[in-house]
Amino acid sequence: MRLPVLLDEVRACRVCERALPLGPRPLVQLGSSARVLIIGQAPGRVAHETGVPWSDRSGDRLREWMGVERRVFYDPGSVALMPMGFCYPGPGPSGDLPPRPECAPFWHDRLRRLLPDVSLTILVGRFAYERYLAEQFDSLTVAVRSGPALLPTRIALPHPSPRNNLWLRRNPWFEARALPALRAAVSSALGATPSPRIPAPRTAPSPRAPRRSG
Ligand code: SF4
Q1: Pick the CATH number of 3-191 from 1.20.1250.20, 3.40.720.10, 3.40.190.10, 3.40.470.10
Q2: Whose CA is nearest to atom 1 of ligand 1?
Q3: Is the pTM of this model over 0.85?
Q4: Of the four, 18, 71, 81, 91, which is 20 to 30 A from 63 by CA?
Q5: What is the 3-state secondary structure (H, E, C) of the chain?
Q6: Could you tell which of 87, 106, 110, 131 is best to mutate to test the pocket of ligand 1, judged by most ligand atoms within 8 Å of the CB?
């Protein structure tokens, strides 16, 4: 199947419609020549309303961490955006609800197969960690700290939400060592020959509630 055809199916998806308080509005950015794939959590309410993922302060910080401008970030031929849940899941008791658990198992593998040039996958936040890295690392913090062991094909990040400022203050090594490694990997991927893709996941996302969008 070609990517545009599958994207049409994504945009028409109603798999978990009944659980979405504002209804389905899948937000992905996928181009068949993308070199960097960002797997975040789920759109927040603003992204749902504007149709632009990562258009908030979390997105600003993520772009700063990556060392890319909006022009590059929103170029589907360079960067693919595929969250753990494609639609806004609604508000929870503290922050938004988790990404819908149906979404990543339903879509991720099929979409990733149509992104043959992705050489770097950036796994952002706990839900991406749980699906793609939990078998290797005991926690998201351990996965982030082990960044060099994952590169050049993958890297894990905490969610860039301002809600994570305390984590950032408690882990100064992240800014000192992980961010330079991230920027170098992004720069290399955006100009480099594609390298092996990440292995298929073996774990499912947990139902715990996130506090962030993206
Ligand atoms: S969250 Fe995912 S599975 Fe649910 S309706 Fe949106 S695209 Fe479909």
Answers
A1: 3.40.470.10
A2: 87
A3: yes
A4: 91
A5: CCHHHHHHHHHCCCCCHHHCCCCCCCCCECCCCCCEEEECCCCCHHHHHHCCCCCCHHHHHHHHHHCCCHHHHCCCCCEEECCCCCCCCCECCCCECCCCCCHHHHHHHHHHCCCCCCCEEEEECHHHHHHHCCCCCCCHHHHHHCHHHHCCCEEEECCCCHHHHHHHHHCCHHHHHHHHHHHHHHHHHHHCCCCCCCCCCCCCCCCCCCCCCC
A6: 87
